[in-house]
């Protein structure tokens, strides 16, 4: 089964309890790294809001949204973490600050996927099947969450990245229709269309990461 097939499997099938348990470490890791990276980037750009709210931490409890996590467990396709509070007024350069903070989340997931791939390659012969499966699923989840968040639909990171490059008129248009964004995201996820949209990007990233791992090891 190639990576795209596994990605579609992750999004579209109903997991048995064993598969769900194997997925939880990757889900918690991906959400935690993603939100922590937003908080860290904001802090480095001069905004201490996330730190004041206790979000500048790698403790998963600080980032888990109970409803979003429950939704993920029940639907096994769709969920969310607590958004990191950011006050762009504290940035010296508001556009640059928001761009870097928004990019930090997805990029952290891609870097995490790379590190998982390196660990997988280095210790492949010394780990049991269960651990290898957990690492493989965590790899797929981090790639998936990273790419998914680059979709330019509010409240995903991609919309904030796009917002930096829009004119005021275009920003007004986007915000006017943002009320429908959650419905659009749910339709994309549950219809399976998301796999067709993100599949090529997942494949490219998978090829790139495997190429890098091949150079390292």
Provide a compact summary of the structure:
With 217 residues, this protein is an all-alpha fold.
Low-pLDDT runs of 5+ residues are: none
What pattern of helices and strands is seen along the backbone?
A: HHHHHHHHHHH
The first-to-last residue Cα distance is 24 Å
Overall morphology:
globular
Radius of gyration, in Å, reads: 18 Å
Characterize the main sheet.
none
Q: Strand share of the residues? A: under 5%
**How many separate domains?**
1
Tell me the helix content: over 70%
The average pLDDT score comes to: 87
Number of helical segments with 4 or more residues: 11
Number of strands: 0
The secondary structure category is: mainly alpha
Structural overview:
It is a single chain. This protein is an all-alpha fold and 217 residues long. It has one domain. It is built from 11 helices and no strands. Helix 2 crosses helix 7. The longest helix is centred in the middle third of the chain and has 29 residues.
Characteristic terms for this protein:
mainly alpha; 72% helix; 11 helices
Which SSEs are present, and which pair or pack?
Elements: H1 3-12, H2 17-44, H3 49-52, H4 60-63, H5 66-75, H6 94-122, H7 129-148, H8 157-163, H9 168-176, H10 181-191, H11 193-216
Helix pairs in contact: 1-11, 2-6, 2-7, 6-7, 6-8, 6-11, 7-11
